[in-house]
Amino acid sequence: MLTWIMENMATIIISAALILAVAAIIAGMIRGKRKGKSSCGCGCAGCAMNGACHTRN
Predict the structure, then answer these.
(1) Who has the most CB within 10 Å: 19, 40, 43, 44?
(2) Whose CA is closest to 39, among 27, 29, 26?
(3) Model's pTM, two decimal places?
(4) Which residues of 14-42 are buried (b: 16+ CB within 10 A; e: fewer)?
(5) What are the CA-CA distances from residue 2 to residues 10, 25, 26, 48, 50 (Å)?
(6) How far apart are CA 11 and CA 17, in angstroms?
(7) Long-range contacts (CB closer than 8 Å, 24 or more residues apart) made by 40-48
(8) CA pair distance 18, 6, nearest whole angstrom
């Protein structure tokens, strides 16, 4: 078992880094959604769906 871990250490480290990066991105998207921010990052004035994705305050 230890031999397998040592032989695949680079793959394990890269996979863990990718999983952490994806988790951080998803957490950031959830935080932004809770704060009412748009997921596209641009203004809604020129968007064809401007009345459908956000409620007006």
Answers:
(1) 44
(2) 29
(3) 0.63
(4) eeeeeeeeeeeeeeeeeeeeeeeeeeeee
(5) 14, 32, 33, 56, 55
(6) 10
(7) none
(8) 19
What is residue 7's three-state secondary structure? helix
d(C-alpha 4, C-alpha 35), whole Å: 45
- Cα dist. 25→2, 7, 31, 34 in Å? 32, 30, 10, 14
Q: What is the dihedral of CA 18, 20, 25, 28, to 10 degrees?
A: -170
> Does residue 29 contact residue 39 with C-beta atoms inside 8 Å?
yes
